[in-house]
Each structure stands twice: as structure tokens, then as C-alpha cells.
Design goal:
The complex is a heterodimer of chains A (157) and B (292).
Chain A (H helix, E strand, L loop, with lengths): L5 E8 L2 E8 L4 H9 L17 E4 L2 E4 L12 E3 L12 H8 L9 H14 L5 H8 L9 H13 L1
Helix pairs in contact in A: 2-5, 3-4
Chain B lengths: L4 E3 L4 H7 L7 E4 L3 H8 L7 E4 L10 E3 L5 E4 L4 H5 L2 H6 L1 H8 L4 H6 L2 H6 L7 H7 L3 E6 L2 E6 H4 E3 L2 E2 L6 E7 L7 E7 L10 E10 L2 E10 L6 E2 L1 H7 L6 H14 L10 H24 L4
Parallel strand pairs in B: 1-3, 2-3
Antiparallel strand pairs in B: 4-5, 5-10, 6-7, 6-10, 8-9, 11-12, 12-13, 13-14
Classes of the chains: A alpha+beta (157), B alpha+beta (292).
The complex binds flavin-adenine dinucleotide and FE2/S2 (inorganic) cluster (2 copies).
Chain lengths: 157, 292
């Protein structure tokens, strides 16, 4: 690997300044796991289809498996680990627990972050809007009805 | 994925200068959603990628032209387009199609320029832009030129862009009031999948006669294309179920479908028949309801 194939990126990660030495070809999800031990985003399909690798970049959801880590230089990145504050869970996380919106939990970080973008845009979404936003996230345990219920519950709060 | 040289120029001139007319392993990267898939599967192994994300100015933004049409910068994300009130009022057919184009994460990142330059026949917007008579402006070291979206696609994953040429913007002309316009996306797997068949129609009706018609099909064929036989069947005919059926038959006869994981060639031919007809009907219904 030549020198131009590597670089230093500086960005904000879960509210704190972050710095990483990366290869230009590395994806966001790889770097989050390897350099920051953040395992909430995980690569599953690797093709942008399932949403397990979701992270928010400047407030919008991206598939970390298709996003070059180099592109977060200068950006603000939020992962599921940065959502709550201290020992307090975020209301979305709380609602997912209260509504049993998962079984194995593999898809859950992605659904929660996608819900964050949804509620930032539409604080009181209709069921159709919820389905529209979450249609690109797959849950192998098929917790879908409970997920929609969890999202509705926060929106009605 | 193999490592590569990644450059992030700040101006269009620099970006164009960093491309190479002889070397296919040097390419632009916009959102990267399509390119990353190709690199991960090693279908494409770049030596250098020229990122367009820091290029300021003309690649960005949606604005109205002097003639009432829209100029959409190539780096506009599909999500910006989806949420654009200007797009929704000028071309509701596009806003509608964007809602089922992939998923929100991809639309947040994918750009209109990448969508067109990729040359993938399974894209949703090319057939619509063809029927709206849109054109792209392209820039290279040799200067700027216009390419009609209908002339942009040269074959399976092939465009008429030179290796060192960039799309800078897409220009969509303003549409006459009352024109009938619709896009039918047919997916054989999930709702937000790539289409098995995409059928876009555009026609104007005066005194119960179709005076001008454009029909474009994508995904079934090796590239998005206009279907002359269907257009001929519509022109100077009344907008009736019978005429729509005839035009749909003509489209099914004319297309040369390709088999892929979205469907076999013979299945796609039948789906072209069904969805061209539905698009023609839907376009008329929408107009009479005042929603199209
Ligand atoms: C999971 C998934 C599902 C999808 N589903 C659909 C779907 O249902 N319907 C649909 O239509 N599409 C679908 N897509 C495709 C999506 O629309 C494209 O991936 C996207 O539009 C490409 O844009 P990009 O900016 O990411 O392009 P990139 O990946 O950055 O680039 C694609 C190509 O265009 C070139 N390029 C980029 N910008 C320019 C420019 N300005 N000038 C010249 N060349 C340029 C690049 O060199 C490359 O060859 C899907 C994609 C994924 C990953
Ligand atoms: S792993 Fe990235 S979307 Fe499935
Ligand atoms: S809870 Fe198991 S995949 Fe969704």
C-alpha cells in the first residue's frame, strides 16, 4: 500500500472528537469496529439492503458497509452507542425494550438509528411513514409489528 | 477491496484534470453506492478514484431555469430530490418514483449524476427522464457538451460519456400543463427492489386525440430506451383502453428483453405488456383527477 492509499481522518464520533488512520478503501463500519471498538453497527448483507450497518452521518442514515470511511472526515458520526446519555437510555431504546421490539437484537441498532432520523424529520409519523422509513431495514426474527408499535409509542408520548 | 489512490479536488476543473481518457481504472466517485458494490465484488478495481464530494458550486443544488425547467446539479442526492417541493410540483412522477427507489440510506448518499453515469439498465429515473426529454451537461478537458438522456445509454452498463467526462447537471424542461405522465415500477421480489420492468409514459391529449406520445422502458432491456412502435400506436389515436392495449402489445413486440435475476426474458416481455398498459391508464386517470 503506497502512502496515498492511507490517510488520517478527523471527525466527531458520538459527540467527541475522533481521529483515525485508515486505508482509503476501508468502509465506515470496518473502521468503527476496528479503531473504536464500536460493535453496534455490523456488516450483514454488505450490499446496502439490510440496515444492520447503519450509522448517522451529519444526521442522515447511511449504510456503513457501502460508505468509505474517508468520507466522514470533517463530519459528525452517531452510532447506537452514542444515542443515550450516561446511563440513561434514549427514549427510542427504552421504547424498543418496553414493546419487545426485538428477539435476537442483531438488527436493532439499525432500526433504532433509522427511527432517530424518522423522528427528527417527522416527530409524529403515521404508520405509513413509519413503514416507509423502515422498509429498508430487515429483521430476520420478524419483529416488525412490535417495531412499528415501539416507534408509534414514542411518537405518541 | 483493494486499496487505491483517493483524491478529493475542490473544483470541477481540477476534477476533470485528474481523470484520464486512456485509463479505465481511474474513475469519479460520487455517493459510491454503486461503485462500492462493484469494488467489493472485484468487478472493478480502481487505481485512482476522484471524489466529487468536495467539488463546490455547479455540481450542487436544484434551481429553476429561465424557461421554467429545473437544473439539478449532478451531486444532488436522491433524498434531496425526494424531499424537494420544486420537484414535487414540477414533476410529481419523479417524486413518486423516488419513494420506492432503493431505501432511505441509499437515497441519502446516492447522487443523480452517479445514478445516470453508472449505465445500469435497472435504474428507475432514466426512463422517466427520457420521457420528460431531459438532457445532461457533461464536462471534460475538451469543454462542455449536452447529451440527451435518451442518447446517454449505449448498452449494458455503457454510456456515451468519455472515460474522462463528468456529468455536471441534469436539465429537465418545463412540462406543458395537463400532460399525462406516469411511471410504473414492477418488482418481482421486494417492494423497494430494483425493477424487473420500469415503464414511463408521457403523452398529451387534445380534443380526445393523443397528439404526442413518449414511451420508455427500462430494466427489461440492456438499457433504458424509447419504444417507437408504442409511440406510433398512440399518436393520433384516442386515449381509450383499446388503444392503450394496442400500444402495450406493440411495446412487448418491440423490446428485446434480457434474462437476469429479476426475471427471464419471456416473463419480462409479458410484464412490459402489462405495465406499459397500466402506466398509460394510470397517467390518464391521474390527469382527470387533477393530480398528475
Ligand atoms: C441496496 C441498493 C438498492 C438499490 N435499488 C435501486 C432501485 O430500486 N432503483 C434504482 O434505480 N436504483 C437502485 N440502486 C442503485 C442506486 O440508484 C445507485 O447505486 C446510485 O444512484 C448511484 O449513485 P452514486 O452517487 O452512489 O454513484 P457512484 O457509485 O459514486 O458512481 C456510479 C458510477 O457513476 C460514475 N459517476 C458518478 N458521478 C458521476 C458524474 N457526476 N459524472 C460522471 N460519472 C459519474 C462513477 O464513476 C461510477 O462509474 C440501488 C443501490 C443499492 C446499493
Ligand atoms: S450490511 Fe450494510 S446494509 Fe446490510
Ligand atoms: S431481532 Fe433478530 S434480526 Fe431483528
Amino acid at each position: 500500500m503506497t502512502k496515498t492509499h492511507r490517510r488520517t481522518i478527523r471527525f466527531k464520533l458520538n459527540g467527541r472528537p475522533a481521529i483515525a488512520e485508515i486505508g482509503t478503501h476501508e468502509t465506515l463500519v470496518e473502521v468503527l469496529r476496528r479503531d473504536f471498538s464500536l460493535f453496534g453497527a455490523r456488516e450483514s448483507c454488505g450490499q446496502g439492503l439490510c440496515g444492520c450497518c447503519t450509522a448517522l452521518v451529519n444526521g442522515t442514515a447511511v449504510s456503513g458497509c457501502l460508505y468509505l470511511a474517508a468520507f466522514v472526515d470533517g463530519a459528525e458520526v452517531l452510532t447506537v452507542e452514542g444515542l443515550g446519555s450516561g446511563n440513561e437510555l434514549h427514549p427510542i431504546q427504552q421504547s424498543f425494550i418496553e414493546n419487545c421490539a426485538f428477539q435476537c437484537g442483531f438488527c436493532t441498532p439499525g432500526f433504532i438509528l433509522m427511527t432517530k432520523e424518522l423522528l427528527d424529520r417527522h416527530p409524529h409519523p403515521t404508520t405509513d411513514e413509519i413503514r416507509h422509513y423502515l422498509s429498508g431495514n430487515l429483521c430476520r426474527c420478524a419483529a416488525y409489528p412490535d417495531i412499528v408499535r415501539a416507534v408509534k409509542a414514542i411518537a405518541e408520548r | 477491496m483493494r486499496s487505491f489512490d483517493l483524491v478529493e479536488p475542490a473544483t470541477l476543473d481540477e476534477a476533470v484534470a485528474l481523470l484520464d481518457s486512456q485509463d479505465k481504472s481511474v474513475r469519479a466517485i460520487a455517493g459510491g453506492t454503486a461503485l462500492m458494490l462493484m469494488m467489493k465484488t472485484r468487478l472493478f478495481q480502481p487505481t485512482r478514484l476522484v471524489s466529487l464530494r468536495r467539488v463546490n458550486g455547479e455540481l450542487r443544488g436544484i434551481r429553476m431555469n429561465g424557461d421554467g425547467g429545473l437544473r439539478i446539479g449532478a451531486m444532488t442526492s436522491l433524498a434531496e430530490l425526494e424531499y424537494s417541493p420544486m420537484l414535487a410540483s414540477a414533476y410529481p412522477v419523479m417524486s413518486q418514483a423516488l419513494r420506492t427507489l432503493s431505501n432511505i440510506r441509499i437515497r441519502n448518499v446516492a447522487t443523480l449524476g452517479g445514478h445516470l453515469a453508472h449505465g445500469d439498465p435497472h435504474m428507475d429515473l432514466p426512463p422517466i427522464l427520457i420521457t420528460l426529454d431531459a438532457k445532461v451537461s457533461a464536462a471534460s478537458k475538451r469543454g462542455q457538451r449536452w447529451i440527451g438522456v435518451s442518447d446517454l445509454f449505449a448498452g449494458y452498463y455503457q454510456t456515451s460519456l468519455a472515460t474522462d467526462e463528468l456529468i455536471t447537471a441534469v436539465h429537465v424542461p418545463s412540462q406543458p400543463l395537463g400532460v399525462c405522465c406516469w411511471y410504473e415500477k414492477f418488482t418481482a421480489r421486494s417492494a423497494d427492489d430494483w425493477p424487473t420492468v420500469g415503464a414511463a409514459v408521457w403523452y398529451s391529449v387534445h380534443s380526445n386525440v393523443i397528439t404526442e406520445a413518449r414511451v420508455a422502458v427500462s430494466a427489461a432491456t440492456d438499457r433504458p430506451m424509447r419504444i417507437a412502435a408504442a409511440e406510433a400506436a398512440l399518436t393520433n389515436a384516442p386515449p381509450t383502453a383499446q388503444v392503450f392495449s394496442k400500444a402495450a402489445d406493440a411495446a412487448a413486440d418491440e423490446v428485446q428483453p434480457i434474462s437476469d435475476l429479476h426475471g427471464s426474458a419471456s416473463y419480462k416481455r409479458e410484464m412490459v405488456r402489462v405495465h406499459v398498459r397500466r402506466a398509460l391508464e394510470r397517467a390518464l386517470n391521474l390527469r382527470s383527477n387533477g393530480a398528475g
